[in-house]
């Protein structure tokens, strides 16, 4: 299949992309979190093509993207007051709310769960596309399953070129990690995936929020989790990754003491002088004090190592405060939870 790459997202291009979605095709599009690979969420056959293009395990559910808050009622069977409070506070934005789903939502979207994840993105071109399509758009990240999520259209082309109908290039993503996922389907709100809307922000609106074990630990293949995607290795570049947590000066010293030929390093900007000239492949994650900047850079850094042929990647990992929890979660998953605490 030839993939149309749209460098300039005109109204006409959005109309064509909306028609591709309505007709059961696949369009990769920019959002504020990462690039999404979209299909008509109400068309099970179209959604199946997303799984084929990505090589995604069938038991990993997709998020439905909507363009206006009212569309939540077309997908969710129950909308508790807490969901409305979250929507008022954080939509449009990088927050997915998991709710009991209506029977019309295809099982391909929910992976057979009786819940559905719903998000109203803030990216203007994402919203314009959903409006043009006239249907909710089911979209996971537009990468080959297991690889780092795409934060530029070039990343999408690398993984999806020749496999999907269209790629819309809207520049680099402003958040850089996938949406926060919070489930309101149980008795207590539960954070399933950390993201740009932080745990602290959720607690300020909801009070008590539990953090799912899968956010911080490896989950065994035999364990039942509320989102099956949580147990797969994820976000991984070709080379194995070691995530090193703890005080930046100490983690930098540990990495320096472990360095071998062929290693790549991801370091905090402040620690860069310690590594310059000592390591062949070096990428900065941004300042240790700025996890939002780290979130924007992380996936591009991980992909960059694939192009230079690093044999192992040693990465400084931030702590769990604010957006740091999301960066640390992605980095630890990329490392298959090979984490060293110094
Ligand atoms: P991705 O598009 O790669 O960001 O994957 C979508 C992710 O959204 C899944 O891996 C889950 O973490 C989450 N998700 C989507 N729908 C549900 C749901 N019904 N219940 C729990 N988590 C969900
Ligand atoms: Mg993904």
Structural class call reads alpha/beta
Tally of distinct domains: 2
Assigned CATH architecture of the largest domain: Alpha-Beta Complex
State the oligomer. Answer: single chain
Query: What general form does the structure show?
Result: globular
- Give the CA-CA distance, first to last residue: 49 Å
SSE topology string: EHEEHEHEHEHEHEEEHEEHEHEHEHE
Number of helical segments?
Answer: 11
Q: What percentage of residues falls in helices of 4 or more residues?
A: 25-40%
Nearest-angstrom radius of gyration?
20 Å
Mind telling me the CATH class of the largest domain? Alpha Beta
- Unreliable residue stretches: none
Molecules bound to protein: adenosine monophosphate, magnesium ion
Report on this structure:
- This protein has helices at 11-22, 44-54, 81-90, 107-110, 124-133, 153-160, 199-206, 248-258, 272-275, 291-308, 324-334, and strands spanning 4-6, 27-29, 36-40, 63-65, 95-100, 115-119, 137-139, 166-168, 180-183, 190-193, 210-211, 241-245, 263-267, 281-284, 312-316, 339-341.
- The protein is globular.
- It is an alpha/beta fold and 342 residues long.
- 50% of the residues are buried.
- It binds adenosine monophosphate (AMP) and magnesium ion (MG).
- Adenosine monophosphate (AMP) binds at residues 60-63, 98, 110, 113, 115-117, 140-141, 178, 181, 183, 192-193, 226-227, 229-230.
- Magnesium ion is lined by residues 140-141, 149.
């Amino acid at each position: 299949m030839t993939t149309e790459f749209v460098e300039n997202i005109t109204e006409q291009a959005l109309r064509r992309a909306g028609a591709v979605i309505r007709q059961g095709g696949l369009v990769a599009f920019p959002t504020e979190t990462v690039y999404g690979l979209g299909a008509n969420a109400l068309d099970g056959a179209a959604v199946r093509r997303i799984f084929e293009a990505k090589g995604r395990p069938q038991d990993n559910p997709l998020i439905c993207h909507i363009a206006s808050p009212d569309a939540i009622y077309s997908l969710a069977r129950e909308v508790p007051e807490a969901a409305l409070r979250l929507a008022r506070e954080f939509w449009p934005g990088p927050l997915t709310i998991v709710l009991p789903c209506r029977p019309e939502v295809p099982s391909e979207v929910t992976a057979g769960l009786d819940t559905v994840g719903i998000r109203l993105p803030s990216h203007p071109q994402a919203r314009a596309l959903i409006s043009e399509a006239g249907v909710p758009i089911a979209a996971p990240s537009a990468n080959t399953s297991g690889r780092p999520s795409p934060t530029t259209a070039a990343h999408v082309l690398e993984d999806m070129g020749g496999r999907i109908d269209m790629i819309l290039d809207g520049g680099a993503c402003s958040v850089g990690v996938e949406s926060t996922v919070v489930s309101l389907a149980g008795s207590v709100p539960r954070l399933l995936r950390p993201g740009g809307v932080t745990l602290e922000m959720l607690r300020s609106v909801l009070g008590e929020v539990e953090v799912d074990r899968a956010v911080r630990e490896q989950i065994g293949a035999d364990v039942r989790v509320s989102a099956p995607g949580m147990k797969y290795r994820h976000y991984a570049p070709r080379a194995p990754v070691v995530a090193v947590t703890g005080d930046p000066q100490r983690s930098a010293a540990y990495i320096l003491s472990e360095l071998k030929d062929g290693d790549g390093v991801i370091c905090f900007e402040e620690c860069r002088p310690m590594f310059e000239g000592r390591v062949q492949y070096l990428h900065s994650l941004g300042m240790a004090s700025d996890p939002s900047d780290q979130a924007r850079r992380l996936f591009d850094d991980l992909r960059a190592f694939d192009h230079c042929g690093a044999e192992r990647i040693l990465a400084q990992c931030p702590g769990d405060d604010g957006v740091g929890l999301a960066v640390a979660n992605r980095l630890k998953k990329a490392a298959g939870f090979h984490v060293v605490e110094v």
